[in-house]
């Protein structure tokens, strides 16, 4: 997962994240380039954002994600929907926002996958129509810690717990959703412990 040490002035280090991006190169106005491509790979290193240790304040976004199976699961740069949703969340004073698709199914947050606890089991929505197949989400599924299934907004509202996850921030508990306080059962500390044992960098 994309976790690294971010060096600051004076030689001191603190946890940071690294992201890569790729541009195939060539072409004009959406026209595929002819001949051999000269791709550009971009690498950015940045400090991790600060979040309240007691958990995230998350809002419901009014911005819906378009269904496009050809792009579903891919971390691409066509993320205007997420930009609009994050701006909406910031205006409401929230840390993040949960997003639905055009059918009203829960998909993800603006920069993380969502996982909900129901009947003692962690569940995460599929990303076959939209959303990103996140690395942390994939790890949870591979380890048998979470299962993929359709999730409706009312199921999130009634969940025993809600967490967000991605490769940079790891697992982040949701403390408030739409202004309502959410519980923090022992299952949250248990799944955090699993991640920290496998990847100690996230325990910092």
TrEMBL record:
Share an example GO biological-process annotation for this protein: 4-aminobenzoate biosynthetic process
Span of the secretion signal? none
- Give a single Pfam family match: Aminotran_4
Comp. bias (Basic residues): 1-11
Q: Which residues form a coiled coil?
A: none
Highest taxon in the source lineage: Bacteria
Which InterPro entries does this chain map to? Aminotrans_IV (IPR001544), Aminotransferase-like (IPR036038), BCAT-like_C (IPR043132), Class-IV_PLP-Dep_Aminotrnsfr (IPR050571)
Name the record gives this protein: Aminodeoxychorismate lyase
Q: What is the lineage of its organism?
A: Bacteria, Pseudomonadati, Pseudomonadota, Gammaproteobacteria, Lysobacterales
């Amino acid at each position: 997962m994309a976790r690294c040490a971010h060096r600051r002035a004076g030689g001191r280090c603190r946890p940071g994240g690294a992201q890569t991006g790729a541009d195939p190169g060539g072409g004009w106005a959406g026209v595929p380039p002819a001949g051999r491509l000269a791709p550009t790979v971009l690498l950015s290193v940045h400090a991790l954002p600060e979040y309240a240790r007691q958990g995230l304040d998350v809002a419901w976004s009014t911005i819906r994600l378009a269904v496009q199976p050809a792009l579903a699961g891919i971390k691409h740069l066509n993320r205007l929907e997420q930009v609009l949703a994050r701006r909406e969340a910031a205006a409401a004073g929230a840390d993040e926002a949960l997003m639905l698709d055009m059918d009203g199914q829960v998909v993800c947050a603006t920069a993380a996958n969502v996982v909900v606890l129901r009947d003692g089991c962690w569940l995460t929505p599929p990303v076959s129509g939209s959303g990103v197949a996140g690395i942390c989400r994939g790890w949870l599924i591979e380890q048998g810690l979470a299962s993929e299934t359709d999730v409706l907004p009312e199921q999130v509202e009634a969940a025993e717990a809600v967490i967000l996850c991605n490769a940079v921030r790891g697992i982040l508990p949701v403390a408030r959703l739409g202004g309502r306080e959410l519980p923090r059962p022992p299952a949250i500390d248990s799944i955090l412990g699993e991640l920290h044992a496998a990847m100690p960098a996230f325990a910092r």
